[in-house]
Amino acid sequence: MRYLTFFILGLVFWLLLTFRISLQNVIVGSAASLICTLIFARYFFENTGKLINPRRWFWFLAYLSVFIWSCIKANFDVAYRVLHPRMPIKPGIVKVRTTLKSEFARMLLANSITMTPGTLTVDIIGDDYYIHWIYIRSQDPETYTRMITGVFEKYIKNFVE
Question: Is 126 left (phi over 0), alpha (psi -120 to 50) or beta?
Fold first, then answer.
């Protein structure tokens, strides 16, 4: 099952990358996916049953929409701060605690925070994330934890863990 999943994902990635469905393209994509599957599949996808669960796909799509919306809002916020004559920034590093347990979920949360403009994951130590924030809105740890990770954490928890 692991090899079949890796092969299908590789072929879908190939078709999305080339954006052409022709016989030659499917044959070349299948050959490339087969070679990659034989070489790399044993290192990935330990539990492929999770991958086809429709509930996880629903939560992934919900997370994706929330992430895109958060990025759009953060882009406007950063643009406002850059274009404002007085440049209203109050940067600093805050310590945020997460409840996520799996390494993949933690990595996804750190990358989501980093890819959102105005925040940057500086370090992860245990359950604590150290985040550089362009404008610290609160001094209360619970409040800024909710503001930074709360949006992403519940969606990541539902589709990864």
Answer: left
At residue 46 the predicted structure's pLDDT band, cuts being 50, 70 and 90, is low
> Which tokens in the block code for residue 151?
């949006």
Encode pLDDT of 90-143 as tens digits: 898 989 999 888 888 899 999 999 998 888 999 999 889 999 988 888 888 888
Token reading at 64: 């994706």
pTM: 0.72
Phi, psi of 91 (to 5 degrees): -75, 155
CA gap 160, 108 in Å, rounded? 9
Domain boundaries, the chain: 2-49, 53-160
> With the C-alpha atoms ordered 15, 17, 23, 26, is the resulting torsion angle positive or negative?
negative
Q: How far apart are the first and last CA of the chain?
A: 20
DSSP output for 25-76: HHHHHHHHHHHHHHHHGGGS-S-GGGGG-HHHHHHHHHHHHHHHHHHHHHHH
